[in-house]
């Protein structure tokens, strides 16, 4: 999927280039499901004006879900949620110092009124953020709903009934 594509329904934003190896997992899922997205580096601390502009324009640009990943003092998802009504899905990026628990706590404890749908720490959380965004879009897109159902069925099908020696 062309990350510069205009009018895409999902924004994948992250605090730093260093978050991309994690956030790429969300992009991979959206590629598999045929969901359009854009990717941007938007830091709450290093580029606060960029964050504000992105949030200010998000709904008018047609974004229907924003996946926001950050690590450490991970204020990006919450600040984005405070700036736009577009649903924000937060991904706590794993950190070296505190293993991402710092990121998780920074994202999950939002005050009443400004929710962030917070995923698990790291790659699994980013992949699930892609699936969550697809699920939100699938509510009003039957073709995507069918692709998502097929994706889920294929995953279930891939799980063996019995363990085997590796
Ligand atoms: C956060 O600080 C970013 O989201 C990233 O997870 C973390 C470290 O950023 P870098 O120092 O690697 O750019 O803002």
TrEMBL record:
Signal peptide positions on this chain: none
Annotated family: Belongs to the AIR carboxylase family. Class I subfamily.
Protein name as it appears in the record: N5-carboxyaminoimidazole ribonucleotide mutase
Keyword hit for Isomerase: yes
Matching PANTHER family: PHOSPHORIBOSYLAMINOIMIDAZOLE CARBOXYLASE, PHOSPHORIBOSYLAMINOIMIDAZOLE CARBOXYLASE CATALYTIC SUBUNIT
InterPro entries: PurE_ClassI, PurE_dom, PurE_prokaryotes
SUPFAM superfamilies in alphabetical order: N5-CAIR mutase (phosphoribosylaminoimidazole carboxylase, PurE) (SSF52255)
Gene: purE
Entries under Gene3D superfamilies matching the protein: 3.40.50.1970
Enzyme Commission no: 5.4.99.18
Pathway of action: Purine metabolism; IMP biosynthesis via de novo pathway; 5-amino-1-(5-phospho-D-ribosyl)imidazole-4-carboxylate from 5-amino-1-(5-phospho-D-ribosyl)imidazole (N5-CAIR route): step 2/2
Function: Catalyzes the conversion of N5-carboxyaminoimidazole ribonucleotide (N5-CAIR) to 4-carboxy-5-aminoimidazole ribonucleotide (CAIR).
One annotated GO biological process: 'de novo' IMP biosynthetic process
HAMAP family (alphabetical): PurE_classI (MF_01929)
UniProt keyword Isomerase present: yes
Catalytic activity: 5-carboxyamino-1-(5-phospho-D-ribosyl)imidazole + H(+) = 5-amino-1-(5-phospho-D-ribosyl)imidazole-4-carboxylate
Residue ranges annotated for the PurE domain, each copy included: 8-159
Top-rank lineage group of the source organism: Bacteria
Organism whose genome encodes this protein: Paracoccus isoporae
Key words, A-Z: Isomerase, Purine biosynthesis
Single GO molecular function: 5-(carboxyamino)imidazole ribonucleotide mutase activity
